[in-house]
Amino acid sequence: MSWLNRVRNSLPFLPKRTTTDNLWVKCPGCQEMVFAKEYEDNLAVCPRCDHHGRIDADTRLAQILDEGFDLLATPKVAEDPLKFRDSKKYADRLKQARAKSPHSDAFQVGSGTIDGRAAVVGVQDFSFMGGSMGMAVGSAFVAGAEAALERRCAYIVVTAAGGARMQEGILSLMQMPRATVMTRRLKDAGLPYIVVLTDPTTGGVTASYAMLGDVQIAEPGALIGFAGQRVIQDTIREKLPEGFQRAEYLHKHGMVDMVVPRGALKRTLAQLLDYLQPRAVAA
Fold it and tell me: Is there a smaller number of Cβ atoms within 10 Å at the N or the C end of the chain?
């Protein structure tokens, strides 16, 4: 044994300090490193630049609904009806997405209360195949609307999607009119339909249920639009204005009713429910 090993073995060295991989979070907005606990406590909003990070459906439901809400089962639909394949099979893409998620698809519905006001909340999860709208998403949206009709309460939908799911072709596009019909049924029943637009909300989702709310709320800085900016710019052959397709720009031009920070969202929704569907006053 060398003298170095003898010295090393005889000294009371402390064990090597261990740290978790997720101790710090890099903000996508300002690129600064933020302490993960601080970021989480601030609802995934950067405390330095106020960038609103993307969050999953379970986290969103827990932030909006009161404790003890029920999670509705995702309706069963035909998987891979077109036997689609691009660089890989659609069935394999679904397996890959489900391996990273506790849910079978990109839209989850919770039924409960918001500060004591009854509500059904549907949330689109961008982390599941870009929140793309396929038959499962469309069926889950419809199931959420039917639950709101049954409970005689508001239906709140939080959108985050890259558009229709191309692997399901026309079957994906058919979800647009299905969802639109359900928003009409809610209106006919006199029930509030509120949409919260988050980053990003694009494509066929924007062209259907995302822009049909009685009240349109957007998170700060959210990208909201139908076609991509490059496509629009190349089509009209003009430079787009600064902030085009961002929440603040749409609010300024009347396409969004309000821009609400995430920390104030639950309180704002509760106030809107009081306005749109007042609770009965006890005698």
Answer: C
Distances (CA, A) of 136 to 97, 104, 107, 141, 258: 14, 9, 8, 9, 30
Cβ–Cβ < 8 Å for 90, 84: yes
At 129-161, the pLDDT tens digits run: 999 999 999 999 999 999 999 999 999 999 999
How many domains is the chain built from?
2
* Residues 33 and 100 placed together within one structural domain of the fold: no
Is the predicted pLDDT of residue 282 greater than 60, yes or no? no
For 171-187, what is the mean pLDDT? 97
Is residue 5 included in any domain, yes or no?
Answer: no
Quick check: bond before 200 cis, omega within 30?
yes
Helix H or strand E encompassing 70: strand 70-71
DSSP H stretches of helix in the chain: 3-10, 36-41, 57-64, 90-99, 135-151, 169-173, 175-188, 203-206, 229-236, 247-252, 265-276
